[in-house]
Every structure is written in structure tokens, then in C-alpha cells.
Prior knowledge:
binds magnesium ion; Rossmann fold
Amino acid sequence: MGFSAWQVASDKLKNSIGQNNHTSWIEPLTYKGEDGETAVFEVPTSFFGNYVQQHFEDYILYQLRNAGLQVSRVLFSVPAQVPQNLNRSTFESVASPERPQELTGAKLDDRFTFENFIVGKPNELAYAAAKRVAEGGPVTFNPLFLYGGVGLGKTHLMHAIAWELQRNQPKLNVMYLSAEQFMYRFVQSLRERKMMDFKELFRSVDVLMVDDVQFIAGKDSTQEEFFHTFNALVDQNKQIIISADRAPSEIKDLEDRIASRLQCGLVVDLHPTTYELRLGILQAKIDMYRSAYPGIDIGPEVVEFLAHRISSNVRVLEGALTRLFAFGSLVGRAITIELTQDCLSDVLRASDRKITVEDIQRKVSDHYNIRLSDMLGPKRVRTFARPRQIAMYLCKQLTTRSLPEIGRRFGGRDHTTVMHGVKRIEELQNQDSQISDDIIMLRRALEG
Length: 448
Ligand code: ADP
Ligand code: MG
């Protein structure tokens, strides 16, 4: 009967969200049943599920209830995770968010898996260490301490470990939470005089993960409690995984004895992303978006542009891509560099490394051994003209200057001259490997 309720609800949804949305997002859902509280749908990918959840969950719930189904939430699962028989117990071990707060940690993001993590030079060690811990064999290093700047994948790796452990050893009590949540619970237990419960709870976990531990630095009683919890678990040979935004010894106001305990295991850092890693991450995300945005594609030149220009952190990179796809589908146009510059002007400005036209002119004239005055002057012989065009091309690529502005900085040339130069270099890059090598090198030098 739930199934016919879904039929009715689905028809009604057409009116509230429109035929197009209905075709793209509702029809691909497969209704799997409900457990008296939650209606479960199978979705093709977890990205798809997240999207539907964010945009249509309320509508779906509303219509399901209108159609007579007594449910209070909706769950979107990829095939492997859909519970086989929808009674409450199996259900909760799959969809942990509904377990009582005291028994689990924070909710795990189902996109943060090892499969979705792109490995490159900057993160290969962290990845390997995380993988090892996720195997769940005998504890070899304790704790695993992951550190690195914002948005480099610390939380992603921690969730991936938790997912993997839960999948392989469902009985294992894995607790993931942020240091902030740890403190919050600690304070709450103090207030409610439930310190015994608190201690018992934390000492009964098999694997404890505390994210962003720098947060408790300087918070004395929380640090103290954390230290005791930590020691108790290490004594029982339970695995602990910690993350922070910097190395233990560099966390200000963290007690020395805690810092030194944190260094006892394996300390690995995630390095800032490289251009190659950013390309890989973008490509993987784009593959994911393909099913969600059929008909919209993003060419390699745009991908390279993004990887070059947004180097701050992966979160920003992802956000930029999401926005680009949404924008592209809204305006129904191909995603070009121009569209990208329009749509992401704020992001691009913020992560602008402030390479100036002068930097480029100087580097390029050095490289080709010509005088700056010849690059900017009127002579049109190839020895000067080619470096000049390359410099113009790099200005277009690496700065936010417009063509007329660039022209002005090159001895007052017209913007059509700049445009011609940029085009010429784009063509030559594909024909002349010397030129494309030069450009790669110059670009590195400028960005490095
Ligand atoms: P941190 O905790 O280090 O601040 P997160 O783990 O929250 O960073 O990562 C920020 C975002 O970037 C997340 O959406 C995450 O999935 C993504 N991300 C980071 N590194 C990678 C990677 N190597 N491959 C795929 N996605 C990544
Ligand atoms: Mg994090």
C-alpha cells in the first residue's frame, strides 16, 4: 500500500515542482518501502540522493503524508546500502543518523568515502595511513594524527575510515565527533551531573575519532578530560584518530603532555594541493555531475582554468564547480571560460594570486632574452612579436585584466591586437611543442 501511496504522491509532486524536475529527479527514484517512520528510496548515486534531499525532501515528505503514509522522514540510499528488510534495527545500523545522540558521534557524510577520495602526491601518505587504520587489524600506531590546512581532506578521510570500519565490522563501536562536540558533551554532562555516563560512554568505544582537536586548546577542563579519555583508550589498545589544522607541537595552548602523547603514534600531514591533484579532483566531480546535469558539459580548457586559478582549498574548488553547473543549466548555455569568469568572479578574485601584468612581462622577456622595452615597443619582428604574444596570452590567463587593459599595458595596443595574439598562441600551443613547453614553464615560474 505504501507503493500506491507513492504513486499518488509522485503524481502530485509533478504539480508542485514541475514536469522537468519531476522527470530528472523524481522518476529515477525507486520506492523501497517504509519502516513506520522513514520512507526509503533507492537512488542511482549518492550525489543524486544528496541533491534530491536538499531540494525536494520537504515536498516528497509532504506529499507522502498527504497520500496517507505515516512517515516523518525520507532516506535516499544507493543500492548497496538500502536495507533489505525494513525493520527498525537493520535500518539504524545502515542509517546511523537516527541512532540516539549519546550512542553515536556526529553524522557521517556519505560522500566522504575512500572511493571518492582522489589520491595525489600531496595526500598519498595520509591516504595510505587512513587505509591501513580502516583495515581494522591490530593497532600498530596510536593515535593516527592527521593534520593540514583547511579543506584538504582531513574530515573526508576520517569519515572514510569510519564508513569502511562500519562496513567490514558492523559490531565495532566507532565514534566520530568534532572536538567541539566533545567539549559540548562534556560540559553538558557536568551540568546534568552525568559525568559517570560520559566517562563510561567514551571508554566503551572501540575506535574514537576526534576532528579538529586544535579547538580544545586553551580550554583547560576539556583538555584534561580529553587527556584522560585518550589515555584510557590507548591503555585498552583501542584505535584513536585525531585531526588538527597543524602539527601537535604547533598547537598553541595545548598542554605539553597532551601534545607529546599525540605525537606517539603516526603523524602525517596533508600538503597543499598541486595543480595535478586539483585537475584529478575536478575531473572526478565532473564525472559525478554528468548524471545529474545531462546535456551540460565542461570543456578541458575550463577545467584547467579552474585548477589553475582556484588553488586555495578543495572545498572552494568544489563549490565553484557546483555553482558553475547550476548556472550553466539555468542559462542553458555551454560552460565557457567567459561564463566561468562571470559566474565565479568573486571566488576568482578572492583566490587571485595577484600575478601582475608587469610580473609576466618581466618573466617572459627574461626567458626569451629580450629587453622589456622591445617587448612593449613597436617592433614587429618575430623575435619580439612572439614573446609579446605569449606575454599577452599569459596576462589573459593569469590575471583578471580585460583585453583593452592588457593592450594599454603593452605600449598602448588595441584590444583586437591582444585578442589576435591570444588566439595565435592558443593555436601554436597545439602545433609547436617548444611553445607549449615554454608556456608551461613560464606559468609554473609565475605561479610558484
Ligand atoms: P578538512 O577537514 O581538511 O578541512 P574536508 O575533508 O572537509 O577538509 O574536505 C573539504 C572538501 O573537499 C570535502 O567536500 C571533500 O570531499 C573534498 N576533498 C578534499 N580532498 C579531496 C580529495 N583528495 N579527493 C576528493 N575530494 C576531496
Ligand atoms: Mg574538517
